Amino acid sequence: MKIDPKSPADLSAQIAKAIRDAIISGDMIVDERLPSESELADQFQVSRPTVREALKRLAAQNLIRTQRGATGGAFVRRLSYDEAYAQHITTSTLLLSMNAVDFETACEARYALERACAPMSAARRTPDHLATMRAEIHRQAQPGLSDERFCDSDVAFHRALVDGAGNPVLSYQLAGAVESMQPLMNMITFTQRNRDVIIGLHTRIADALEKHDGAAADTALAELTAYTLTLGEEAMAARAKR
Amino acid sequence: MKIDPKSPADLSAQIAKAIRDAIISGDMIVDERLPSESELADQFQVSRPTVREALKRLAAQNLIRTQRGATGGAFVRRLSYDEAYAQHITTSTLLLSMNAVDFETACEARYALERACAPMSAARRTPDHLATMRAEIHRQAQPGLSDERFCDSDVAFHRALVDGAGNPVLSYQLAGAVESMQPLMNMITFTQRNRDVIIGLHTRIADALEKHDGAAADTALAELTAYTLTLGEEAMAARAKR
DNA sequence: GAGTTTAAAATGTCAGACAATTAAATGCAC
DNA sequence: GTGCATTTAATTGTCTGACATTTTAAACTC
Questions:
Q1: How many CB atoms lie within 10 A of CB A37?
Q2: CB-CB contact of B195 with B150 (8 Å)
Q3: Which parts of B11-146 fold into alpha helices (H)?
Q4: Tell me, in Å, how far CA of A49 is from C1' of D18?
Q5: Interface contact flag, A173 B108, Cβ < 8 Å
Q6: How distant is the Cα of A59 from the closest Cα of chain B, in angstroms?
Q7: N or C: which end of chain A has fewer CB within 10 A?
């Protein structure tokens, strides 16, 4: 691991990259301890604050964890699903909002991916997944539910649908598509009639999964896609007029 | 924006969180300048190095960029697709390798998602996408190509397939699924016969997209899924025996 | 008025110190 | 010897103050 003191890039960025590469390439394994900050400072011929800045960069990416005390130090961290989930969702959401992705594009992507899960979920969903979906449908039908809560529940429903496929990689990749839609969905005003239609489709999806009928689930999802798109268009039109 | 000096968490982590929240919530917009490091140090009642550690954390997540000089400082950064791509791929790859996800799970997720793209790609692919796919097929047929290069080309082929759907959100979400498979694919030894089968299926996919035939593309992808799974199983079995 | 010089502001880096935390080594009573 | 309390050492977390570097803008000169 070497750095170039004459490079225009920050030393701390270079050091972070060197260590990151070592972790990603597998040169350093999970729970392995990095040299202490002082030792790293000596190795890279920089000061300790500079090393610390580099370590903080890695900590921000969940690549290392630090422990204080005698046997402390920085350790290569096992990236957990939950952390990766959270990071993925944050990044996806920011990407959409900062780049002004239109509703149609995000919606299309989300439902295309969800439909890919439908047959697998129909085959493998557990009673737990079904129960979650039914519970969310029930919640969605409650009177006086705010639009935001309705969206929350919608996301939870669809997450259960995706998780039903029993493939954590799939769940992870889809989390970004489903959750990052939420800010866009929150722009929509859901009338009672809108909600009734959505709840009806959700029920059809849950019924289809219960019967292990992937095709029926796919059909209902396709209808939900179309319906959501029209709702989005209306909302955008209303927004533009205002 | 406030922090709690008595919290067990690092001050720099707290400060980073406070600023990150301000960015994510939209309180700070793209290209807005943060206060200078000294000003932030005053605001949060900490020293400048601590502030700097916080800023490096944010820089590691591509949330801010820094400029030196008189009008310099830290600015809220527009998250670009390319950066988000790279970050997403790195995280996905690490997640798979660190958690020992098995080939089957990763493969299933990848192809399920790709198949979701097939109809859209069949409808919208441009001549550019087709040309890329044909070029990669040609590359895959070259004699003496190393297994690693073959995998590279395979990823490039599939990326073109996904990009053909013309939905950047879809491309982004799928990048993680497709690219993170590469380390697993690299464990496979591709015999000439294996390659011939794969190239044949790639050709069928390209032909189908050329004819805007989504169903045919889907069928070929399904076959490719099954074939890749058997290759993976063989490789894992051989690995286990060794 | 154009070009040059200078000053100021900001980040990047360094050195050294002290505080806080943690685990191991040490010492002591029994 | 054993168990408990104490000390010690190692390490990260934080602070202070300084200097280097980069960049812009103002001041100055011609």
A1: 19
A2: yes
A3: 11-24, 37-44, 48-60, 81-98, 103-124, 127-140
A4: 14
A5: no
A6: 7
A7: C
